[in-house]
């Protein structure tokens, strides 16, 4: 006589949809909580970048410096897209500013404090975004523009032998990135 088989309970389709919705809502609320928890982040980071400014004895004559992409300044992003964009900017900033060549140009205390703040917010943003999120579709993907922008920054630094003048321009571009990050945080709170 065959043993009776136990069937696993099945969730109705509505319950599955509700579970997915609650997961998305929890992720969204986690991202919103991140920015209301510590609204001082962009301002603190901007002050640290200001502290890293070095006085130049000679004027800088740099060729083709990169500038923050204008296409990213006026995007109508959904909160989860703004979070993904903010995360990408923070990751690139951390990678760029943690370069060994910054040590000789910027005060180590301010630089290390800024890197710690960036890492802290990267960690929290990674926690609030779903792992399988595909936030952008189509040709107007801001993540591609961000990748190109930071690639151009690295090429610019290399072309100018990681000079103090080049790093000072990068510092100013990091300020522009953080100011845009501040606008993205407002989008994430919607």
List keywords for this structure.
mainly alpha; 6 helices; 63% helix
Summarize the helix and strand pattern as letters: HHHHHH
Q: Report the major sheet.
A: none
Radius of gyration: 21 Å
- The tally of helices reads 6
How would you describe the overall organization of this protein?
Helices cover 63% and strands 0% of the residues. With 190 residues, the chain is mainly alpha-helical. α1 (13-37) packs antiparallel against α4 (108-128). The longest helix is centred in the first third of the chain and has 25 residues, at 13-37. It is globular and about 40 Å long.
Q: Any chance you could write out the topology, listing elements then pairs?
A:
Blueprint: H1 13-37, H2 41-51, H3 79-97, H4 108-128, H5 142-159, H6 164-188
Helix pairs in contact: 1-4, 2-4, 2-6, 3-4, 3-5, 3-6
Short summary of the structure?
It is built from six helices and no strands.
């Amino acid at each position: 006589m065959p043993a009776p088989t136990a069937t696993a309970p099945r969730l109705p389709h509505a319950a599955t949809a509700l579970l997915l919705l609650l997961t998305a809502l929890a992720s969204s609320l986690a991202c919103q909580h991140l920015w209301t928890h510590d609204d001082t982040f962009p301002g603190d980071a901007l002050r640290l970048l200001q502290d890293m400014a070095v006085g130049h004895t000679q004027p800088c004559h740099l060729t083709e410096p990169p500038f923050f992409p204008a296409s990213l300044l006026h995007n109508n992003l959904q909160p989860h897209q703004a979070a993904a964009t903010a995360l990408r900017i923070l990751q690139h900033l951390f990678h760029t500013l943690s370069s060994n060549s910054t040590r000789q140009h910027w005060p180590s205390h301010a630089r290390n404090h800024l890197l710690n703040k960036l890492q802290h917010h990267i960690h929290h943003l990674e926690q609030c975004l779903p792992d399988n999120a595909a936030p952008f579709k189509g040709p107007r993907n801001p993540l591609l523009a961000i990748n190109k922008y930071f690639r151009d920054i690295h090429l610019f630094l290399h072309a100018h032998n990681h000079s103090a003048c080049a790093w000072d321009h990068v510092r100013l571009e990091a300020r522009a990135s953080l100011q845009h990050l501040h606008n993205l945080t407002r989008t994430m709170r919607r």
